[in-house]
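In the design runs reported in the main text, the only information available to the sequence generator was the tokenized backbone. The following block is the verbatim input for one such run; it is reproduced so that readers can re-run the procedure and compare outputs position by position.
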């Protein structure tokens, strides 16, 4: 972690680019807001590899964290083969943090160029590129934040873990559900037995591509999430870990799975829906359902937890909705348990945890092995569907 002298250098490089356009892609950028990274602040320097939607979510969280007491992150380098997308992201970084990152087409170029130093690498590339980019970052001695899933297969994940061990640097897999406020509220009450003990759990991961927002547009024809070879599967493979992780946080490790999956989005060759039953090492059982629908879908809960003293419901609203409600004998109408956090706020905790691990050596809320466990559950679901039987994870 370092002093942010890059701010002055970035301003100079931007001015030079305006005079000599061939030196660096340049475009007018909006003025940084009041919440920008102050020049005297120390920060963890970061290279972001891949400038798509998930990188924007990470950037928004990094900027929000400047207002708090967390270790700040400064994005000093960005890498993307698409020059237009790269420049647009550079403008966002400047507008939200006051830093103008140096641009490269790839991580390899950034490592070789080293015109601006960076100690961490935030990998936001398509799933099939996770292993080669992560291994390259570890071989360069960098701390790594790798977007989920950790890899396409458990074997690939094992090679990434081996590279991380050889590097001896911080390795975190970015599963933001680990920091999702509503999930943590439920966990607090389960651990405290506020409403008794868990009887069973239900989870439903659902989205619709009707009236597409920016994220749902990622599943459009021709994009990598619709390509099984690049994504590793369909909607279930790409999204289900966000729902599997909370179930594991609440109920224990998943040991057996039985499930089916299918397709309902014609242009997606991978699965777009699934149904499964999970058996946990605690003796509990739960149900899981996922669907990416090509039609309108009624809003419905993300999670329902049945306990001996009531029911906890997590609202199916990315903005937070009502958050978590408890239905009990005393409150059959339901009572809201805490201030809703919403999906986007989970990235704040994720970025803060990674920065603290790098700068202060604090332990991560969940190590990369937990991401491997999520991946193994997904592969067990697909094996079960192929075999038509319960399978071990």
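Verbatim output:
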């Amino acid at each position: 972690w370092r002093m942010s002298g890059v701010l002055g250098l970035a301003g100079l490089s931007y001015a030079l680019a305006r005079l000599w356009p061939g030196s660096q892609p340049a475009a007018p950028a909006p003025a940084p807001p009041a919440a920008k990274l102050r020049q005297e602040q120390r920060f963890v320097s970061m290279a972001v590899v891949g400038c798509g939607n998930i990188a924007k979510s990470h950037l928004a969280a990094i900027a929000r964290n400047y207002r708090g007491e967390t270790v700040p992150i400064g994005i000093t380098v960005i890498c993307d083969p698409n020059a237009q997308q790269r420049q647009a992201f550079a403008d966002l970084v400047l507008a939200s943090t006051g830093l103008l990152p140096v641009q490269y087409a790839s991580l390899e170029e950034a490592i070789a160029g080293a015109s601006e130093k960076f100690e961490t690498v935030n990998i936001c590339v398509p799933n099939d590129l996770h292993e080669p980019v992560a291994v390259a970052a570890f071989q360069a001695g960098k701390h790594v934040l790798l977007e989920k899933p950790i890899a396409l297969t458990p074997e690939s994940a094992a090679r990434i873990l081996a590279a991380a061990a050889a590097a001896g640097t911080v390795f975190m897999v970015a599963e933001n559900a680990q920091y999702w406020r509503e999930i943590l509220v439920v966990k607090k009450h389960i651990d405290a037995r506020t409403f008794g003990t868990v009887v069973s759990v239900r989870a439903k991961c659902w989205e619709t591509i009707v009236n597409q927002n920016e994220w749902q547009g990622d599943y459009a024809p021709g994009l990598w999430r619709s390509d099984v070879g690049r994504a590793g599967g369909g909607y279930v493979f790409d999204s289900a870990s966000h729902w599997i992780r909370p179930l594991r946080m609440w109920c224990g490790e998943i040991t057996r799975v039985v499930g089916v999956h299918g397709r309902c989005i014609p242009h997606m060759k991978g699965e777009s829906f699934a149904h499964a039953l999970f058996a946990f090492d605690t003796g509990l059982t739960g149900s899981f359902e996922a669907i990416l629908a090509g039609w309108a879908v009624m809003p419905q809960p993300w999670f329902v937890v049945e306990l001996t003293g009531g029911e906890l419901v997590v609202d199916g609203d990315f903005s937070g909705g009502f958050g978590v409600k408890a239905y009990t004998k005393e409150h059959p109408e339901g009572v809201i348990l805490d201030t809703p956090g919403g999906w986007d706020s989970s990235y704040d905790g994720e970025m803060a945890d990674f920065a603290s691990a790098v700068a202060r050596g604090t332990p991560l809320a969940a190590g990369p092995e937990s991401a491997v466990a999520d991946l193994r559950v997904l592969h067990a679901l697909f094996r079960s569907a192929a075999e038509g039987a319960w399978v071990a994870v």
